[in-house]
Specification:
Shape: flat
Strand order of the largest sheet: 33-34-35-36-37-38-39
Radius of gyration: 31 Å
Distance between the termini: 101 Å
Number of helices: 3
Number of strands: 49
Structural class: mainly beta
Length: 502
Amino acid sequence: MSRGRRYNNETKLNYKKVFAAIIALIVFIFAIIIIKNVVTKAKNAKPEGIRNYYALYEDDKWGILGSNGEAVIQPMYQEMPIVIDKAKDVFLCIYDINEEDGTYKTKVVNKNNEQMWETYEKIEALENYDEADNVWYESNCLKALRDGKWGLINLEGKEITEFIFDNIYTLRGVQNSIVVQKDGNLGLVNSKGTKILDTKFSQISKYGENAGFITVNQENKYGIVNFSGDTILENNFEKIENIYSDKYFVILENGKQCLIDKQSNKVLTDNYDEIKQIANSGIVFTKNNLYGVMNFTGETVIDPQFENIKEINTDIFACKKDGKVGVIDNEKTEKIAYSFKEITYNKKAGMYIAENEDFTSSILNSNFEVKLTGILSEINVDSGYMKVKTQDNYKYYNFKFQEKELYEIYPNNKIYAKLQDGKYGFVDAKGKTIVDFIYDEVTEINEYGFAAIKKDGLWGAIDKQGKIIIEPKYNLNDYLKIDFIGKWHLGFDLNMNYYCDK
């Protein structure tokens, strides 16, 4: 029997069936992946209508409020939970507080009030403050304690630094810059845990608004680094003043201020008592307690005769004289008369804002022409509009000083506040009345779909369709800001950023 005939009689492989089986297997695998992703997304999904989270206060207890107006976590905690990032359901709760010895416990919970990351001895938020002492928190990470050492974790619970530090804290007023302390020395990391500076300094402070850091080494010598940790000035100086410029620096030498350049060459050393600001074409200085301006060659440009001077735009100075503020240029030409309480320049909007004693503002364009006068209640540089109250009515303008309709300012809203015969109501984009004109004061529909309504001295709320959520019942006369999410109103202390029903 030939081998060839035997092989010819064997069953042949059906390639179509094999191919179909492979395709079926691939489809099955993809189906498993899709189902897994759907389950994961469903598990992590926010409750319907929720975009952000806030602390909630009711009956002397604290919980979490969703931006749909519903309590995500019912009030049950003794202390206010910290919402680390208002878009994420990661909440730091403080409990078991012993006021006698100052001890407490912390835990992190999600929207279901389920504790997360229990392996750490303690987890804390990275607290910070702005210039007005308003508190805020680093929104991308938390500090955690394990085996007596601190490290950083992100909001998914992943460790982003080693747990080797004796302490971790924020640099006041600076985002994304976290001080780490080890063996008495200080360094810096960002909120992703990436190292900015080695732990080798005795002091670290911010330089300018967003310019970098002033560092002090163990020999008590000052230097400057940028936000990436690159050296701008070596640690060779007695002191460096926090007066920002990208070209010049104010140092202290034998107790006397001196202006130097990036190569440490001396630029200005005398004819002033104190340097107050590095301007575009010189310095603002004081002499005998009066302010003047000097260029970088030492020539006095504006004599020291003012109570205050500040460069508010390139070579444009707000000057105070006899208790009133005006504006001049570097050639001493008067641009705005000395008749205001304060004058500032909004660079993004391209306008000067001159505040009057009666709390109204004169708003001028870049040519120093007064375009509007009234109470400037809002200026939104991101959306390109301002809200000005004139003659007991609010109007909206773009930065070209063109009046805009409400539906242009709030394109996602369905109803808009309107004043008629001394009372407020709400109309749609075509002017049809949706809410009767019966209220003494109202707010526009906010980003979550709620507006405040005031009647007979009391405040309540409506939703984005004009439906009453809660009848006016709250006396909020002393509150600085009126805002509602559902039936809950913004708390009295804006610094705490919570909602309540009191």
